[in-house]
Design a protein that fits this description.
By secondary structure, this protein is mostly beta strands. It is 6% helix and 47% strand. It contains 2 helices and 21 strands. Strands 2-5-6-8-9-10-12-13 form an 8-stranded antiparallel barrel. A 5-stranded mixed β-sheet has the order 15-21-20-17-18, with no helix packed on it. The two termini are 30 Å apart.
């Protein structure tokens, strides 16, 4: 199972160079009508010759998916354009060692775009176009943001040259890099969720109910009491249970509409969206092979800034 923290570390001047501030406006210098208020890019990596790990605030999920939070940039809900910065570092690993890619930037224009990154080569950090992005369908624009699903990322000529130089293996333009699901929030309501992401109804084949997306409570809040942020909490339904049974975790104190990841024993498995009161609930199996002893379930935001942990014990029946 994929673990939540990145396995490799990037330190010192190399990290600072890789994480230089990115863009806040369109490439031609014109600002977008909406600043990015959140969101993420979920990447399912597909290159057989290289493995991918990540460093925080990016996180690893199940099914070879990695989650990179949107940390800046903007979008145009009228045209479906976006130019966004992604937090975290992608760590490519091959027999030659690891190649950190920071300063991740995704430019999208309808159903095409490019993924850029800053890479350290020969002691120098430089931004390179890593992959070209295409889709069979354009973005879905909602009042709360813009969503792209199933974006295919293929190595650009520059990206292929970078990987070839670093690894000593042969890469070519057009080689598969991965598939992206991207959401950019625009601050007007809850951030939308791309179809098929872990923990959403679409991922299990259940249609999402129709109607407007959930939104943050008004200033008066529920029952006239203003909504205020609280420290997140996590509790489980059963503190002790046997292998081969089910468990449920409940969280409070999240921001309404916030995307919350669920990690079981440091293995990120699910995603849920906080309701209008900032609460989340997720059921999950405790497998027959689960070891006896204490296990953990963690609820944490995509950015990794806020979360809570609950413990439960697995004990075989006497």
């Amino acid at each position: 199972m994929a673990k939540r923290p990145g396995a490799a570390a990037v330190t010192g001047g190399a990290l600072l160079a890789l994480l230089c501030p990115g863009v806040a406006a369109a490439q031609d210098g014109a600002t977008f009508p909406h600043e990015a208020s959140g969101g993420y890019a979920a990447l399912r990596f597909e290159n057989r010759n290289v493995t991918l790990d990540v460093a925080e605030p990016a996180v690893r999920g199940s099914a070879d998916r990695s989650w990179f939070p949107v940390t800046g940039g903007g979008a145009d809900t009228g045209t479906g354009e976006a130019d966004i910065e992604l937090g975290g570092t992608a760590l490519l690993t091959a027999a030659s060692g690891s190649l950190p890619l920071g300063g991740l930037r995704l430019e999208l224009d309808g159903d095409t775009g490019v993924l850029s990154a800053r890479a350290m080569v020969a002691g120098q950090a430089r931004e390179r176009v890593l992959a070209e992005v295409t889709s069979d369908s354009g973005p879905v624009v909602r009042s709360s943001g813009v969503t792209w699903s199933g974006l295919r990322a293929s190595l650009s000529a520059e990206g292929a040259a970078l990987l070839s130089e670093w690894s000593g293996a042969e890469f070519a333009a057009g080689d598969a890099f991965g598939v992206l699901d991207v959401t950019v929030g625009t601050g007007s309501g809850a951030t939308p969720v791309p179809n098929g992401t872990p923990g959403t109804p679409e991922a299990s084949g259940t249609p999402r109910p129709s109607g407007p997306p959930a939104s943050r409570p008004t200033d008066e809040g529920r029952d006239g009491a203003g909504w205020t942020a609280a420290a997140p909490t996590a509790t489980v339904t059963r503190t002790t249970l046997a292998p081969g049974t089910g468990q449920q975790v409940t969280g409070t104190g999240f921001e309404p509409g916030e995307i919350v990841l669920v990690s079981i024993d440091q293995d990120t498995r699910y995603q849920v969206v906080a309701d209008a009161q900032g609460g989340v609930t997720r059921t999950f199996p405790v497998y027959d092979r689960a070891f006896e002893g204490v296990h953990t379930v963690e609820l944490y935001t995509v950015s990794g800034g806020r979360g809570a942990v609950a413990e439960f014990e697995v004990r075989a029946p006497e």
